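Continuing the batch. This is chain 6 of the set; chains 1 through 5 are on the previous pages. Same settings as before, nothing changed between runs. Recording input and output for traceability.
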Amino acid sequence: MNVSTALWIMTLGILAAAFILDFVVVDARPHVFGPKQAARWVVAYIIAALLFAVFVWNYFGAEYGQQFLAGWITEYSLSVDNLFVFIVLMSSFAVPEILKHRVLLIGVAIAIVLRGLLIVVGAAAISRFAATFYVFAAFLLYTAISVWRSHDEEPDLEGNGLIRLVERYFATTREYVGTKLSVKIDGKRFITPLFVVILAVGTTDLLFALDSIPAIFGLTKEPYLVFAANAFALMGLRQLYFLLDGLLAKIIYLARGLAIILGFIAIKLFLEALAGTTDLHPPHVTIEQSLTFIATVLGVTVVTSLVAVRRSPELAKHSEISHAVEESEEHRGEGIEHLGSGDLQA
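Output for chain 6:
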């Protein structure tokens, strides 16, 4: 797959324009982002991703189009786990409802940049060391097992070293000042909680990327497709946050489905590593088979979840989203307490 510099520039330009349009049109006047508005944007980003898949399919060929689809679906599904931690972060920093969309908008922009850097590193490692796939396979298998068992784990709010560094070395205030990221008090510049929580969202996503980036490299080795799949997944992720109390709360077996998909990709990577580093001829899993498997697993996951919740509505109370909401209540305001105490009334 030969991607020209012009196409890279055009793609990055369109991505930047989408964020600018979102910032200027949607977030020009911060407001409470309702489920109906969120649903419209989710549909819009899904359609945009499918149109991009058609472009790749026609311009580069069916195989690459299928690689993008498989990668995007996988990344989008894995990104849902980010939302559970975002719920806790938003509560911990007591983010006002009207500012939540802005936090996610800028936080996701930071996440895309950081993921882009990680993709460059991953692509370089794969091109130089064929054995990299062994490492990816082992890591994904471990992740699959962890995801399968992850229902009762509690998010680590203290695990972001960058946030601790900001809190320690920069003057911060515990009060939000509209959409300002910093404010001057008595001649001294203070960072507001809005800046800290945006940084927390953007950098915390990088922890999830350590799982998802190896996964998508198991479906395509093309950096352009890896980046595009991540970008589309994260852009649509923001609006999903505001739909958590709807359909997503009913997909109670999501972790099981994601664990199965990660395990499948781990096996695929291991077989490819064997083929590339030994004289063995293991079975080759085609992209068509991968796409079919991923779509089937997700379809079965959604259907069985909805059927189970319909028969026993109380099951939804034990879903990952319900657990995340409970954790958010337990940690409400804790992030603010760690910040400085700049007095805005001074």
